[in-house]
Amino acid sequence: MAQEQRLICASEAVAESGTGFRFTVKSYGRDEPAFVIRYQGKVYGYLNQCGHVPAELDWQPGEFFDDSKIYLICSIHGALYAPDSGRCLGGRCQGKGLKALAVSEIDDKIFLDQ
C-alpha cells in the first residue's frame, strides 16, 4: 500500500532552530496538537505533548526551542528534549520522550507521512 502524505505547511514557515509550525493530527478519532520544527537543516514532527503530562510544549504559539536554540523545552515543566529525536534530556519528563511523527520535506513543502 502506498504511503499517503498530507501537506502541513510551506518550508519557509519553519525557521532553523526557531519558530515551528503547529497543526493537528487524528489520533483515536480525536484531533491532537502537533508541531514541526527545523533543526540542523532537517524537519522533525512531534505530538505537542510533554512526556511528563499532556501539556503543550510551546511557551508562545510555535516557540518550542529554549533560549540556547539547542533544545526543545516544555513551557510548563522546563523538561528538555533533543530536537532530532524527541528524547528526554532532563527535567520532569523522567525519561519519557516526545512522540515522533513521520514528516518529509519535498519541493519547499513539509508533509505529514501517513
Task: Describe what this molecule looks like in 3D.
This protein has strands at 5-10, 21-27, 30-39, 42-47, 72-73, 80-81, 88-90, 100-101, 103-106, 109-113. The protein is mainly β and 114 residues long. The protein has a single domain (5-113), classed as Rieske [2Fe-2S] iron-sulphur domain (Rieske Iron-sulfur Protein). Strands 2-3-4-8 form a four-stranded antiparallel sheet, with no helix packed on it. The protein has a three-stranded antiparallel sheet with strand order 1-10-9, with no helix packed on it. The chain has a three-stranded antiparallel sheet with strand order 5-6-7, with no helix packed on it. The model has no long low-confidence stretch (mean pLDDT 93).
Keywords:
114 residues, mainly beta, Rieske Iron-sulfur Protein, 4-stranded antiparallel beta sheet, 3-stranded antiparallel beta sheet, 10 strands
The overall average pLDDT, rounded, is 93
Major sheet: arrangement of strands: 2-3-4-8
Q: CATH class, please?
A: Mainly Beta
Number of strands: 10
Q: What percent of the residues sit in helical stretches (DSSP H or I)?
A: under 10%
Number of helices: 0
Largest sheet: 4 strands, antiparallel
Rg computed from alpha carbons, rounded to a whole number of angstroms: 13 Å
Lay out the secondary structure.
Layout: E1 5-10, E2 21-27, E3 30-39, E4 42-47, E5 72-73, E6 80-81, E7 88-90, E8 100-101, E9 103-106, E10 109-113
In short:
The protein is an all-beta fold. Helix content is 0%, strand content 41%. The chain has strands at 5-10, 21-27, 30-39, 42-47, 72-73, 80-81, 88-90, 100-101, 103-106, 109-113.
